[in-house]
Each structure stands twice: as C-alpha cells, then as structure tokens.
C-alpha cells in the first residue's frame, strides 16, 4: 500500500527508477575492501665514521635498507609465536661487500664482524638497533654493508635486512657508529 501512495505499483517499478538492490551490496563490499590493513616493514640507517678519542663525526650517511625475505618470514613467525626456538633480532653485522641488496639475501656478502645491536623501542612503531664498532691495532677495513640479524654468529642466524653504503675507512683511530631503524606501518 505504501508503494502505491508513492506512485509505485510494485517493487519492480521502484527498480525501474534506477535503484538496484545490488548497489547497496556493492557499496558494502567496497567499504570492507577499504578496511584492509597491510603490515609494512621499512628500514632506514645512519652510518657515521667517528674519531675514536673525541667522538667527532668525520663522515655521516643516511640510507634506506631492504627487509629481506628471510626477515619477513621470521617476523611473521614471531608474530604468531609459531616456533618456540625462534630468537628475536638483536645483532648488527658489518662487512665489506658491495653487491646491491636483494630480497633473497640471507647474509652479508663479506661479513667482518657482528655485535649486539642494543635494540630499543623509540616510539611511533619504530625499533632501533645501535652499535659503535671499535677496531684494534692493525685492523683496517673499508666497511660498505650492514644488516640486522638474530644471532651472535653468521652460521645459523637469520638476516632481517641488508643495505650497502659508500665505503667507510675504519682503523684503530676511527669507530663506526651504525643506527638502524625498522618502522612498522
């Protein structure tokens, strides 16, 4: 009866006016699709070559780094706590390799050393790994790559990220400060 008072004799007449029941369903589906959330890991690093005794910054470089496939897999497993033997990431490795990072990297190209990266939570979904590497008498390197790992040794550890940068000449008189920021967005 209500339809007749508005000039419609049936629901079919209403549909002829341009309203389709499917329109409402399509709108709801589009709204649901827009609610998708993607978890993205982004990396950024600061590398400083410093004078050993004064701490004076001799050279500073800021670069983006690549979260590698093994790192993504480990993060997914850590989120779900699917394997009790998994270790959190906490070590920074440095090396002399110069090949551009690739998502399939599982280690640095030519690792020199690694050490605990003092992980901390900064804010705004950022995990920070920092380490100042010191070199002894007779040690001299041109460091060009770094990354975060979950183990104290290269064997058996999982790489989270890898990046390369311009060569930083280090020796007994210079230190290398590495700060790696992983942002979850």
Set down the secondary structure blueprint.
Layout (H helix, E strand, L loop, with lengths): L1 H4 L5 H6 L4 H14 L6 E11 L5 E11 L1 H12 L10 E5 L15 E6 L3 E2 L4 E8 L6 E10 L11 E11 L2 E11 L1
Antiparallel strand pairs: 1-2, 1-9, 2-8, 3-4, 3-7, 5-6, 6-9, 7-8
Structural commentary:
The chain has 185 residues and is of the alpha+beta class. The chain folds into 2 domains: 33 residues, no CATH class; 144 residues, no CATH class. The chain contains 4 helices and 9 strands. The longest helix is centred in the N-terminal third of the chain and has 14 residues.
Keywords:
single chain, alpha+beta, nine-stranded antiparallel beta sheet, globular, 4 helices, 19% helix, 41% strand
H and E order: HHHEEHEEEEEEE
Q: How would a crystallographer describe the biggest sheet?
A: 9 strands, antiparallel
Q: Cα-atom Rg, whole angstroms?
A: 27 Å
Q: Which strand-content bin applies to the residues?
A: 35-45%
- Low-confidence segments, given as residue ranges, are none
Tell me the number of strands: 9
Strand order of the largest sheet: 4-3-7-8-2-1-9-6-5
Tell me roughly what share of residues is in helical segments. 10-25%
Number of contiguous helices: 4
The averaged pLDDT comes out at 87
The figure for the number of domains is 2
* End-to-end distance: 54 Å
What is the overall shape? globular
Structural class: alpha+beta
